[in-house]
Design goal:
Radius of gyration: 16 Å
CATH class: Alpha Beta
Strand order of the largest sheet: 3-2-1-4-5-6-10-8-11
Protein name: SDR family oxidoreductase
Structural class: alpha/beta
Number of domains: 1
Distance between the termini: 22 Å
CATH architecture: 3-Layer(aba) Sandwich
CATH topology: Rossmann fold
Number of helices: 8
Organism: Thalassorhabdus alkalitolerans
InterPro entries: NAD(P)-bd_dom, NAD(P)-bd_dom_sf
Strand content: 15-25%
């Protein structure tokens, strides 16, 4: 299975491309913003596609040609303004969903925020609410698309070393999870067709990733 990783140069994305390249049944195409980012992924044996998420749908669709699945891991980051939150976390996600349709790619995995329900927007701090709202509407767009989707809602992201042990369910108490373990969850999700049409929250826990995802 060939996988287009959108947001490959992010912290989750880098872990994910590495894990995909280590997996005999998967291969990655890293979608990156700048040509100078390519050497890292080429050293892993991964293909690259240089596309900015603020480009049009056709540019993203071209990057998705010939792949079997798309993983959206892109994010505007904590140090950008509301404008980038809209352009990347919302519009970039929606354009990628539309690009999947254009390229004929049915499998789509979205890395969302921990809780994107309407109530979460209302309860979020003012500085965080635009991000939650962007993720809310991107998730809604994906649910309405005719794609084989999975939406993953990770808890508080850390750069701690991954343990490979998580808790996963439709509704759990928020907690931390290493970005490395989020990447492992994505790989397990790609390999498990039973995750199609589902969404779930993940935090650090006591079950091996594959077992936790199988029990969703």
């Amino acid at each position: 299975m060939k996988v287009l990783v959108v947001g490959a140069n992010g912290q989750i994305g880098k872990h994910l491309v590495s894990f995909i390249q280590e997996n005999e049944s998967l291969e990655a195409r890293a979608m990156i913003r700048k040509e100078e980012q390519a050497s890292y992924f080429e050293s892993l044996g991964a293909e690259t596609a240089v596309v900015d998420l603020e480009e049009d749908v056709d540019a993203i669709a071209k990057a998705a040609e010939g792949v079997d699945a798309i993983v959206f891991t892109a994010g505007s980051g904590p140090h950008t303004g509301k404008d980038k939150t809209i352009m990347i976390d919302l519009d970039g996600a929606v354009k990628t969903i539309e690009a999947a349709k254009t390229a004929g790619v049915k499998r789509f995995i979205m890395i969302s925020s921990f809780d994107t329900r309407r109530q979460a927007i209302q309860e979020a701090p003012a500085s965080f609410a635009p991000y939650v709202a962007a993720k809310h509407y991107a998730d809604e767009w994906l649910r309405a698309a005719d794609l084989d989707y999975t939406i993953i809602h990770p808890g508080l992201l850390t750069n701690n070393k991954g343990t490979g042990q998580i808790k996963a369910a439709a509704d759990i108490k928020i907690g931390e999870i290493p970005r490395e373990d989020v990447a492992k969850v994505i790989v397990a999700t790609l390999e498990n067709e039973e995750t199609v049409g589902k969404e779930f929250q993940i935090v650090h826990g006591d079950k091996p990733v594959e077992e936790a995802i199988h029990s969703i």
